[in-house]
């Protein structure tokens, strides 16, 4: 493999963990489907302070060893991926850490960044690794945080869930979700939520609202936000779900049978604009499978 960075590549973070290798295999499937290169990115540990000539020699030996270890990690992942996708072009990038900084530098030109939900030594749980969280929080391209079965990382033909709220980033999420579903012959579940009667106190202002009319308006809004993409991808079966409630819990109700959740992430203030919204955070921590965050 050559060590090159390119425009519109799929970038996968690799750290030697089972989760990162499985995430890279998922990324390879996407890269192969869209005819992109796959970049396997690995970050070296940060260098510490040097206090003596002896320390310089020891550190030099240490850095040489960890670079060899990093190359071995990438070579092992590349071998697995090449066996599955022999025509896929795979490149590598090894750079000093921290890992989040290294991967974020790729987001300005990448098509997609893919990371495993846990890193080296992490507990096998739904807790999100700090590197994946930081990358998902700050990348300028879509980021998929992968979680699932390492034996069968996907993609497959199970449904794709997309959150729809009418915002510009939601429209971007809808576009990516339709494109992905079409590429892998998967059905789409479009979920739109709204504030229902349960958010009002009993006997309060909620009794003055025509909830049947609200439900019809929200369903029409969902249909309107899907219309253009549905026309562009007529072969993608679409199920529309419009329900009162918070977005993340409603989407998670359907997540067990889905292969991917796609959402836009945005804030309502200057500070929130740089930090993921509560829906995205909730899904990243609790979804049973991969979550794609569209921030640009």
Automatic annotation (TrEMBL):
InterPro entries: Rossmann-like_a/b/a_fold (IPR014729), Universal_stress_UspA (IPR006015), UspA (IPR006016). It comes from the Bacteria. Belongs to the universal stress protein A family. It comes from Rhodococcus erythropolis (strain PR4 / NBRC 100887). Residues 9-146, 158-295 form the UspA domain. Gene3D superfamilies: HUPs. PANTHER family: STRESS RESPONSE PROTEIN NHAX (PTHR46268), UNIVERSAL STRESS PROTEIN UP12 (PTHR46268:SF6). This is UspA domain-containing protein.
């Amino acid at each position: 493999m050559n060590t090159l960075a390119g425009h519109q590549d799929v970038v996968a973070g690799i750290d030697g963990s089972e989760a990162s290798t499985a995430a890279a295999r998922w990324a390879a499937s996407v890269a192969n489907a869209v005819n992109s290169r796959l970049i396997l990115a690995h970050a070296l540990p940060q260098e510490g302070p040097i206090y003596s000539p002896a320390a310089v020699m020891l550190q030099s030996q240490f850095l040489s060893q960890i670079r060899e270890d990093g190359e071995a990690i990438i070579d092992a992942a590349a071998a697995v991926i090449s066996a599955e996708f022999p025509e896929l072009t795979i490149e590598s990038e090894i750079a000093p850490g921290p890992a989040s900084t290294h991967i974020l530098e790729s987001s300005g030109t990448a098509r997609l960044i893919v990371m495993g939900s846990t890193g080296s030594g992490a507990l096998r749980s739904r807790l999100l690794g700090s590197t994946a969280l930081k990358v998902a929080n700050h990348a300028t391209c879509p980021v998929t945080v992968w979680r699932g079965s390492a034996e069968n990382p996907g993609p497959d033909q199970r449904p794709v869930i997309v959150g729809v709220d009418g915002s510009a980033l939601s429209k971007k999420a809808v576009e990516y979700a339709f494109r992905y579903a079409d590429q892998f012959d998967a059905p789409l579940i479009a979920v739109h939520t709204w504030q229902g009667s349960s958010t009002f106190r009993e006997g309060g202002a909620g009794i003055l609202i025509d909830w049947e009319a609200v439900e019809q308006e929200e369903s029409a809004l969902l249909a309107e936000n899907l219309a253009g993409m549905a026309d562009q991808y007529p072969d993608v079966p679409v199920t529309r779900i419009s329900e009162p409630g918070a977005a993340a819990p409603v989407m998670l109700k359907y997540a067990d049978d889905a292969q991917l959740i796609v959402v836009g992430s945005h804030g309502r203030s200057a500070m929130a604009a740089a930090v993921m919204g509560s829906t995205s955070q909730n899904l990243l921590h609790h979804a049973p499978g991969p979550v794609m965050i569209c921030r640009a």
